[in-house]
Amino acid sequence: MKHAAGLILVMSLLMMAIPTAVMAQDGAVPQAISGETIPCPMPLAPGDVDGETVVCGQIQVPSDWDDPDSDPITITYARKLSHSLSPLADPIIFFHGGPGGSVLASQGSSHFDFNYLRETRDVIVWDQRGNRYSADLLCPQDVLNRDASAKAELVAEAPQFTLEDDQQAITDYVEALYFDAEGQGNCPAYFEEQGIDVSEYSTENTVQDAIALMNYLDYPVYNLFGISYGTTVATAIMEYYQAHPDADLPLIRSTVIDGIAPLDMVSAADAALVAPRNMLRVFSDCEADEACGAAYPGIRQTFIDLLDTLEAEPLTDADGVEVTLQDLIGVASAATSTRVDLIPYLPRMVDELSGGETAVYQTVRTLLSSEAQPATAAPV
């Protein structure tokens, strides 16, 4: 399949701008039109040296993978070379969130240096199409905020949603904040005036950009690592592989999706409902589990009723510990997003809180604010 290409001394020769054929997407492998190494366009982390510990480059790909003759766009990447003298052959390729986040612009931040991963292998970071260093879709502030007064009026008149409100009503309100009657903001019309088709800046095209980049870099095998919206892209890549089982695609050893964004989440309104849906799902899953459901019957409704109660008045236990609506939402949201090891405690926590007890709540809150690990994960 793919031969190894990890020798640093010859990598610059392998990455010369050699034109390649762009293959059709139906069963074939997306290929870059051309590529080259470049000086890194962004500041690097302390200790990194351009061209020595970090090698940057660009590839040209079709703006529309369905049309190989469409105008090319530029995808910029950086290979953060391993600190090891004998790195493993399978690098990690990172997929940032957003969509719209620039991981290249974030170099120098401890969150995106990936030094712990570079102990054993190379890490490839790249800006997805439409982000800062890859065909940037920069919408001027005066265009973005053209209807600022109308938006301010919507915010001022924001309804006080309650637990009884239909989710669609919440979705409609959030969409009204961001989009016009046609489901667009101000920026698409601006880009159309610039001759840019925003429909080309899609997950589907980004998937093929990623495959073209992996092909171009020519490592023998890859590990995918996505966060937030990057999990959507990584998941869509896996679906692409399933849909093209006979294609000579770059080998993938593993895929890590950290905080998955579903493939069907398409708007800010959808994103606004992710956290509450995740919280409610914990209690639905508990009810579906034989042991948990027996210990905490009707726990999903108990949680909803508890939120309703706290919305009216904070809870105060016998020792004077107060729990507000925002306190409970904060704990439940954090446990379901960043400390999933605490999820098994949530049914018992809610059951106790509904009876005016706060012991498990205080324990979970303490664990969330520390590196301590729970001794057990039993729901009872």
Explained architecture:
- By secondary structure, the protein is α/β, with parallel strands linked by helices.
- The chain folds into 3 domains: 8-137 and 199-263, Rossmann fold (3-Layer(aba) Sandwich); 141-193, no CATH class; 273-368, no CATH class.
- It is built from 14 helices and 9 strands.
Structural key phrases:
380 residues; alpha/beta; Rossmann fold; 3 domains; 7-stranded mixed sheet; two-stranded antiparallel ribbon; 37% helix; disordered N terminus
The backbone outline, from C-alpha atoms, is globular
* Beta strands, count: 9
Number of domains: 3
Named CATH topology of the largest domain: Rossmann fold
Architecture per CATH nomenclature, i.e. the level-2 architecture of the largest domain: 3-Layer(aba) Sandwich
Number of helices: 14
Radius of gyration: 24 Å
Question: What order do the helices and strands come in, and which of them pair?
Answer:
Elements: H1 8-14, E1 34-38, E2 54-62, E3 72-80, E4 92-95, E5 123-126, H2 141-144, H3 148-156, H4 167-178, H5 187-193, H6 203-217, E6 222-227, H7 229-243, E7 252-258, H8 268-272, H9 274-288, H10 290-295, H11 299-312, E8 315-316, E9 322-323, H12 325-337, H13 346-354, H14 359-368
Parallel strand pairs: 4-5, 4-6, 6-7
Antiparallel strand pairs: 1-2, 2-3, 3-5, 8-9
Helix pairs in contact: 6-7, 9-11, 9-12, 11-13, 12-14, 13-14
